[in-house]
Every structure is written in C-alpha cells, then in structure tokens.
Write a structure and sequence with these properties.
This protein has 142 residues and is an alpha+beta fold. The protein has one domain: 2-Layer Sandwich (Beta Polymerase, domain 2). The protein has five helices and seven strands. The strands form two sheets. The chain has a five-stranded mixed sheet with strand order 1-2-5-4-3. It has a two-stranded antiparallel sheet with strand order 6-7. A hairpin with a 2-residue loop joins strand 4 and strand 5. Helix 4 runs antiparallel to helix 5.
Length: 142
C-alpha cells in the first residue's frame, strides 16, 4: 500500500468503527510510509482505545495475541491493537496528512522491542533492523 491507499484505508476504518481520525493511530510500516521512510507497506497496524477495541470485537472478526497484546484481524491487511488510553491520545504521535501516526521516536522503540524479541523470526528481525536504521538516519537529519 502506498501513502494514498493508506490514507483511504484509514478513512474506511474510521467509517467502519464510527470514530474520528484521532481515535486511530497508525504504527509500524504504515507510519514509516507516511513519514516517507518507505515506499509501501504490506499491512496496517492500528492502535485503538479499549472502547473502540471492544466495539470492533462485536463483529465476526479473528482475534489473537501479538507481541504488543491482544489484536483483531479487522480487514484484509489491517490489524487493530489496544493501544490508546481511553482518556486521550498518547504524547508520542504526529499527524501526517490527516493521519495520526506513532512518532518516529516511538516507532524506534517499538521496532527495537520487536528486534530483541526472543521468538522473532530472523527474516522479520532483519526488516526490523532496517527500520531501526532508517529511523536512526532520520533523527540524524533533523
């Protein structure tokens, strides 16, 4: 998915969950695309509040556990995670073209956590390392 497709998909998820854009935070590869650090993303990892996560679970969806907690396979290529406190948006977000994204600093932290996870497959660990390098380079240029 390129940046334009990501924006369209995020708007669609907002409509489906009947929420405002600030109720969704895009992370990982999707956020990297929004910041111009990647050209495309294969999937979207979206953090939502407890309330929206419970709302989404009402629908016939597949749930499971991931490295960062409970998740919902919402739509083709879209995974929802509980990640936003119900009282507001976490500090480490930025708005890029109307899409709330994890900040680069927070993305660095998340990729570092994945990179160091003992059960992380080596092919994914390699991609995590590449993301860490790109984020680190972006810090050097700002």
């Amino acid at each position: 998915m390129n940046k334009q497709v990501i924006i369209q998909r995020m708007k669609r998820v907002c409509q489906q969950l009947k929420c405002n854009p600030e109720n969704l935070i895009l992370g990982f590869g999707g956020a990297m695309v929004m910041y111009g650090l990647r050209e495309t993303a294969n999937d979207l990892d979206i953090q939502v509040s407890d309330a929206y996560f419970k709302y989404a679970k009402q629908f016939q969806v597949k749930t499971g556990q991931g490295t960062f907690g409970e998740m919902i396979r919402w739509d083709d290529g879209i995974t929802l995670f509980k990640g936003i406190p119900d009282d507001g948006i976490p500090q480490e977000t930025e708005v890029v073209d109307g899409i709330h994204c994890d900040s680069p600093r927070y993305l660095f932290h998340c990729y570092w956590k994945l990179f160091n996870h003992p059960n992380r497959p080596s092919d994914k660990r390699k991609k995590d390392g590449e993301a860490i390098e790109k984020l680190n380079d972006s810090f050097q240029h700002n």
